[in-house]
Design goal:
This protein is of the alpha+beta class. The protein contains 3 helices and 2 strands, in the order H-E-H-H-E. It has one domain (9-122). The chain has a two-stranded antiparallel ribbon with strand order 1-2.
Length: 123
């Protein structure tokens, strides 16, 4: 458990870092097991590992302490948890879902952050 006081900005920054590390580990595992799924005509030497897409951990309630923390750090118009992994800019849907699920598990199951969900899409 975090050594910071629960509910403070320092606490939230620390648990987001922990969630990012869990996401990194899940991403490493996903890539280790990924096999090419799709080939685009004319690009046979560059097969795709999955459909193109993304996934994010978000909160649907900006009134919680965590939601208020995200509002302070706001970089987008949504209350998205700012996960940072080496795969943040990759576009494989399955990879991003694996990262988001691992991060969500840390935030919700370990630290009890309420009202979080995974928002994902396929391009």
């Amino acid at each position: 458990m975090s050594k910071k006081t629960i509910g403070t900005d320092e606490f939230f920054a620390e648990i987001i870092l922990e969630a990012s590390l869990a996401g990194q580990k899940a991403g490493d595992e996903w890539l280790k097991n990924a096999k090419p799924k799709y080939v685009i005509s004319g690009f046979e030497d560059s097969p795709l590992l999955d459909l193109c897409g993304n996934a994010h951990v978000r909160t649907n309630d900006g009134r919680t302490k965590f939601g208020k923390y995200l509002k302070k750090r706001k970089r987008t118009s949504t209350l998205t948890v700012p996960l940072n992994t080496q795969y943040s800019f990759r576009q494989e849907h399955g990879l991003q879902v694996a990262i988001a699920k691992a991060a969500l598990k840390v935030l919700q199951d370990k630290y009890g952050i309420p009202k979080l969900y995974i928002w994902d899409y396929i391009d």
